[in-house]
Amino acid sequence: MFEILELRGPVAAKAGSNRAASVLEAGGLVLFPDMAFALEADERPLLDPAISNGKSKNVSLDPITGRVGGADVDAEAQAALGRMLTRFADYAETLLGELTPHYAGALQRRRTSFRPGAIENRALSPRKDDRRLHTDAFPSNPVHGRRILRVFANVNPTGEDRIWEVGEEDFQTLAVRYRDRLGSPSRSAWLMERLGLTKGRRSGYDDAMLRLHDAAKLDDGFQKSAPKRRIVFPAGCMWVVYTDSVLHAALAGQHALEQTFLMPPEAMETVALSPLRVLEQVGGRTLL
Ligand SMILES: [Fe+2]
């Protein structure tokens, strides 16, 4: 059964700190229904799909270079975007610091992204279509077994909900379902790294996670019959979830902010629940 830990009020994150990590690690989600990320006056005009450069799905901030990509705007708006994304990254980090003190020092801040377009309007191939149930894997940024923990905020200015579906099937069941499709490590990992197609060498774990992502998304029967549950995220709410292990599909909504953190599985309360350990156990081989 998919668990949603709902936390309300100004001290919501602290109040949930005794249970949040175990709910997240078991494949649940933490929801803050009334914790809005407030936008500054000069940030409100940025809530416009026209700021996109038309090539990227998201506008994003690279925490290492400080560069904002994916937007085609003037220098002033570019600076405002950078400030908004940095503020959100700091906000998300503070939130997790209170919610999951167990992870202190282990969370690694990665991209901050803003999704200004409406989900319904995207015409994409099944593999790229995030309206289909999937677990996250990064094709060009190998994670080498680290967890993908994401903090989301619906900042829609007109009160529009963001709507997801999540799978009721846990990661272990999913891994067993597609066990035969996870294959052996790709021999071309070194070449992709050499050609700059991946940032660093793709590990056996990254290969298996990409295959799992594709297997679920491309399986029409699974998409139709998988047990799932609809979740409505109202404007002004935030949520936290391990998107590498929770089956999810983003069905509708516009204007979401998202912060990605990576975390070594050893920092989890229950390491055995990490996708790395589950895939190694299901496949009977080491992946790193
Ligand atoms: Fe996703």
Can you tell me about this structure?
The chain is of the alpha+beta class. The protein is 27% helix and 20% strand. The chain is built from 8 helices and 11 strands. The strands form 2 sheets. It has an 8-stranded mixed β-sheet with strand order 1-2-9-6-11-5-3-4. A 3-stranded antiparallel β-sheet has the order 8-7-10, with no helix packed on it. A hairpin with a 6-residue loop joins strand 3 (59-61) and strand 4 (68-69). It is globular and about 55 Å long. The mean pLDDT is 93. The chain binds fe (ii) ion.
Highlighted features:
single chain, 288 residues, alpha+beta, Jelly Rolls, eight-stranded mixed beta sheet, three-stranded antiparallel beta sheet, 11 strands, 27% helix, binds fe (ii) ion
Short summary of the structure?
With 288 residues, the protein is α+β, with helices and mostly antiparallel strands. It has helices at residues 12-15, 20-25, 75-99, 171-177, 189-194, 204-218, 220-225, 275-283, and strands at 4-6, 29-32, 59-61, 68-69, 108-115, 147-154, 162-167, 228-233, 238-242, 248-252, 256-263. The strands form two sheets. Strands 1-2-9-6-11-5-3-4 form an eight-stranded mixed β-sheet. Strands 8-7-10 form a three-stranded antiparallel β-sheet, with no helix packed on it.
